Amino acid sequence: MNLLTNPQVINQTRFDSGSLSGLAAVVHRFTQPGEHHVIILREEQPAHTLSLRVLPGAAQPSAGPAMAAGPQAAPAALPTQVHVDLGRALTSPGRLAPVPQEAPQVAAGGYALFHAPSGPDGIAVQVHAPGAKDQAPLFDSRRMQNGDIFTVTLLRPGRYSLLNAPTGAKGEIRVSYPVVGDTPYRPPEPVEVRCGAQGFQPDAIRLKPAQGLIFHIGDTSARIQIELVEPDDGPATGIKAQPGQRRPLARWQKPEPPQR
Questions:
Q1: Is 60 exposed, middle or buried, given 0-12, 13-18 or 19+ CB atoms closer than 10 A?
Q2: How does pLDDT run across 124-152, given as a tens digit for each residue?
Q3: Which of 16, 93, 136, 178 is the most buried (most CB within 10 A)?
Q4: CA-CA distance, 212 to 190, in Å (whole number)?
């Protein structure tokens, strides 16, 4: 995703783990092998379905192509994670994209990261366990549970409200205004936050420009909502930049699932 040519991403000021768009994603760990049934919801209505295949066997870090060892090749490592772009299943309102010929795959114990494109219509996802299509979902991005993860990157400087909708727990996020300089800007490592029955820890969060934010869900249900309430437009207009200064470039990279 090229942030510099996508004004919807740059200007996005509302984020919701239960209505995904832009620089936000939800992550779930899968432990039960089998063909999982994934439902993509748009405006709370089912819009598309696909399969997610969880492979038996422990997930192992990938070490590149298997090297031959004598007459037999070493077994290929099973994938520890998979990125599922929910937007690929939706071409335009009322139309569906072709179903992929092969379902996304991840090893048992690995992680699936679900994300969606920017736009006004948020997308949610449900996942049902193998053979449990008509039962309660194993995972629902609108009501995350213990062990689930929500990741987001806030580009617009300012003060944001933070809310866990099911419990009413609140917090605050402040994103500082970029400081220009002679060296290219690289965002710091993401800030990690715990979301549990006692609320957010910490509940007052300070971020550098384009710095990632990772919420780990604990002993609670969670639908995390973030909204800009006080923008920071930087120095007053009319102040000129010093010679040689340039605006830093923001770059977002999906955070890797944490090691367990």
A1: middle
A2: 999 999 988 888 999 999 999 999 999 99
A3: 16
A4: 4
